[in-house]
Design brief:
- It is built from 12 helices and 8 strands.
- It has about 260 residues and is an alpha/beta fold.
- It has a single domain, classed as Rossmann fold.
């Protein structure tokens, strides 16, 4: 089982990247579970073709927490979960993630769905206790960060890298590289390369700026589904393969798997 966390500053395109990678992996026959860890609950929107699935925290609030109602099957090998968050202005989004993960464990989603790959799509503007859950509590094994050549996205990427490095001694996730989601700004490649060198990592893939992304989003679908023969779909497929190459099987030692093995 591969456990991958994709972080990035809000608005950088991490959910678009995550969803296209999930579809690309499923296209090759993998069972993929994508878990959206953003209070906006929009991680799986493209996978669900515009539908808004009920979130874990929504179901907790209305007392309808069930396995079938919390994990949404796209019918093509991708299963979607949205953690959700508190109502705006009423609580802490990070604490909401912690609560949602607790309920996911209680539902035993891994034991019931047995995914080959889990992708956590995580907001990376801040790395508080809640949003650091995938990297510090043994959920994810490999962390990739989506960035561009814009300074704020690079600052966020470095914050995430520092957080991952800080937990490395405890045997948790490892930082596995930057994904450049190009914005077409001047000297973008050189800027990201320089930042990666300063972070002690590398740019493991560059996604070009392509209008097919916006056209597919307007249609409520991933590029893989909306324009499967496009050059951008090929890029997402190549990114998915490279992420698999750089990730590790991690069936043992992880918190959720440990609970399953112990019959909890």
């Amino acid at each position: 089982m591969r456990r991958i966390a994709i972080y990035g500053k809000g608005g950088i395109g991490k959910s678009t990247v995550s969803s296209n990678v999930s579809d690309a992996l499923a296209e090759k026959g993998s069972r993929v579970l994508q878990i959206g860890c953003d209070p906006k609950a929009d991680s799986t929107r493209l996978l669900m073709e515009g539908k808004a699935p009920a979130t874990i925290l929504d179901r907790v609030r209305n007392g309808s927490m069930t396995l079938s109602g919390s994990v949404h099957d796209t019918g093509r090998g991708v299963f979607c979960v949205e953690c959700g968050g508190p109502k705006p202005g009423t609580g802490c989004a990070g604490r909401g993630i912690i609560a949602a993960f607790s309920h996911l464990e209680a539902l035993d989603i891994i034991g019931n769905f047995r995914p080959d790959i889990i992708i956590y799509d995580v907001l990376g503007d801040v790395v508080c206790g809640g949003f650091a859950m995938p990297i510090r509590n043994g959920y994810a094994r490999n962390v990739f960060v989506v960035t561009s050549g814009e300074m704020m996205s690079l600052y966020a990427a470095d914050n995430i890298r520092q957080a991952v490095d800080g937990f490395a001694g405890d045997g948790y996730a490892e930082f596995s590289g930057l994904i450049q989601n190009s914005r077409g700004i001047d000297l973008e490649n050189e800027t990201v390369d320089k930042a990666a060198e300063e972070m002690g990592t590398e740019v493991m893939f560059r996604l070009p700026r392509d209008g097919e992304v916006q056209r597919s989003e307007a249609a409520g679908r991933t590029v893989i589904r909306n324009a499967p023969d496009s050059e951008m779909a090929k890029n997402y497929r190549n990114l998915a393969e490279e992420m698999l190459r750089r990730s590790e099987d991690s069936a043992g030692g992880m918190r959720l798997e440990k609970n399953i093995n112990e019959g909890k």
